[in-house]
Amino acid sequence: MELNNYLQRINQVNLLDDKCEISSGPENNPTWTATLKFRDQIGKGEGRTKAIARDSAAKQLFCLIDRPYHDQLERQQNGA
Question: How far apart are CA 37 and CA 45, in angstroms?
Fold first, then answer.
């Protein structure tokens, strides 16, 4: 959620690439793997559900993004 809000704020959410698939486990108890990519940064996560896997990947990706650069870009876009 935090990643999505941040990307919406800087008008870059359309650059987020999202992929989620079953990586292992039986059909009735799968382990999901999610991969989120923003520009050259990649976040990966696993979980019992797609949502848990995506959330884990989003948290990892959010920590990797160069936020000072994007915050500066946002200020420029807003005329600050």
Answer: 12
* Domain-wise residue ranges, the chain: 2-67
CATH (residue range 2-67): 3.30.160.20
pTM over 0.90: no
For the stretch 25-35, pLDDT in tens is 898 999 999 99
Exposure b/e, 59-73, CB count within 10 A at least 16 = b: ebbbeebeeeebeee
| Cα–Cα distance, 7 to 41 (Å, whole number) | 13
Kindly report, residue by residue over 50-66, the tens digit of the pLDDT.
999 999 999 999 988 87
CB environment 36-45: b (16+ within 10 A), e (fewer): bbbeeeebeb
